[in-house]
Write the structure tokens for this entry.
Amino acid sequence: MVRISNLKILELLKRNSRMSFVEMAKKLGVSETAVRKKIKRLESDGVIKKYTIETDPRKIGFDIDALIGIDTEPEYYISTLERLKQTKEVIGLCSSSGDHMILAECWFKNSNELAKFIKKLEKSKGIIKICPAIILEKIK
């Protein structure tokens, strides 16, 4: 019996989350049932949390894809995260231990929208530092 590696399954799903169990089984040299059971197990164990898509924001009218590092006063950290979670421009939000406490990926139609968003953040109580960086190209 051939054992299926979790990492091999995850690699296939990361490349194409719509790949059929049959196609995965062929690529891995195992049965479709084995793939189905393995994926169900990865889902129930919480390894696979959700399936999603990768998009090109420019193709849907967002010319600016930015990563914004945000630092807050400690007592405003949670409220800032909660506020950012509800903000339509924020499409990804991470808590970080690196250069910034919060990293937000945001989409904007143009640089004016980005500037307005930054000004709004600057006026937010408890935010002490904002460092935007425009993503030029996603490599991987």
The longest strand covers residues 64-72. The mean pLDDT is 94. The radius of gyration is 20 Å. The domain at 6-44 is CATH 1.10.10 (Arc Repressor Mutant, subunit A).
